[in-house]
Amino acid sequence: MSIDNVNSRLLALKEIESLLNGDSHKPINNGDTFYKFILGISIRRLGEIQFHLKKYIKKPLKQNQNIIKANLIIGASQILYMRVPKYASVNACVELSKKHSPHHVKFINAILRQLVRDVESENIQDLDPLINIPNEILNRWKKHINNNDLKKIAKQHLIIPPALDIALSAKENVGIWCKNLEGKIFGNNNIRLKNNYGKIDDLFGYDKGAWWIQDIAAQLPSKILLSSVKKNAYVIDMCAAPGGKTAQLLTNELHVTSIESNAKRAKLLKNNLKRLNLKTKLIIEDATRFKTEKLADAVLIDAPCSSTGTVRKNPDILWRLSTKKNNFLNTLLPLQNSLLNAATIMVKPKGILIYSVCSLEKEEGENQIIDFIKKHSNFIIKPIHKNEIDITHEAITKEGFIRTFPYFSKELGGMDGFFIARLEKTH
After folding, report:
1. ∠ CA 221-29-327 to the nearest 5 degrees?
2. Mean per-residue pLDDT for 111-125?
């Protein structure tokens, strides 16, 4: 692996500093291969790296010294986990330090050289992968996820690159596309790519508009909706961007109104559907204030959430959430509740309401729905059955919800963590 990647290291350094500062989450999907690899390892193994570095740092670095800490982290990730020559990695971090923290050049050089010596003498402690989940998040999860499952999540979190799912239009031949994309059929109308798939828009058939990127678990809300309504049903997709769920509904010939409050995300949805040669009735408006002229046969709410279930693809999400001064659920829970309340007057009697979040937080999933049912006597839980899903049946809970975890189907590369509930309006 080449070490002449100054710009890649600089990009990674800035991104790690952003994470340590607690800046808003943004998906790791830009930059070249070396940048993505060094950043991916640094974040996925951040708990381990911080544990090892702590051994050499006598006086903890302050918040305003995060650029120094970030430099040590990307240096340590190369020394511990990458095939970059060790002392070349040290020298590269020293050069970065000369530009951004010149008063700490000797400090960074000394710390990383001590780490190299310990690696070469095999004086490095093996660590539990749970150390890579921030304590704030881990302590929350321990309340409703057993330790064995937590370890499985932590192990799945380390895999690079995460598996990629290609969702196909219902009209397409999955076998032909599977051969052309050199993947494996996983679920209905879905192809999984596990390794070295490169840039999305370089994949076979991108310009043909027959497929889109959508995790196998993220496809489930629309699939459950489709199994719940008749052909040509009228559906409202309340939080529609980036458009994968709308695309699923449209390619199955439903009549769809897609609502998106954010203008930039609405533009993304529109562009994604244009590539797929699909068109929806797009409403750019706060979904909680939308007044429908026609009651829907079904309403789909893929609600804004903490996104902790996407940790396989966005390993930084947990660390960013853990640095927030206030509970990250304080604004999300009321918004989800408002969306559910708004949906009650959009759906017709005997109509279906699908609620989903890509979150592992019980407050955003099970608790949200239980609380909703208590307050709305005209809605009941309509259990989801095993024959309605195309993933492992362990995803079905005793209440008839879907609860997926990142380690489900780990032999195929796992999946996003999702919660999904189906409700029926009785009158």
Report:
1. 65
2. 95
Return residue ranges of the chain for CATH 1.10.940.10. 6-127
Where along the chain do the CATH 3.40.50.150 domains lie? 220-425
Q: How far is Cα of residue 213 from the mean position of the Cα atoms in its chain?
A: 13
The residue with tokens 């059955």 is 385
| Closest CA relative to residue 278, chosen from 304, 242, 303 | 242
- Give the fold, CATH level 3, of 164-213: Alpha-Beta Plaits (3.30.70)
Cβ atoms 69, 61 nearer than 8 A: yes
* pLDDT tops 80 at residue 325: no
Between CA 134 and CA 393 the distance in angstroms is 30
**Tokens 């040590």 sit on residue:** 72
CATH code for the part of the protein at 6-127: 1.10.940.10
192 in Cβ contact with 186 (< 8 Å): yes
| CATH 3.30.70 residue ranges for the chain | 164-213
Rounded average pLDDT over 85-108: 94
Q: Which fold has domain 220-425?
A: Rossmann fold (3.40.50)
Query: What is this structure's pTM?
Result: 0.93
Q: In 182-243, which ranges are E strands?
A: 184-185, 190-193, 211-213, 234-237
Distance CA 343, CA 107 (A): 57
> What residues contact residue 88 under an 8 Å CB cut-off, 6+ apart?
3
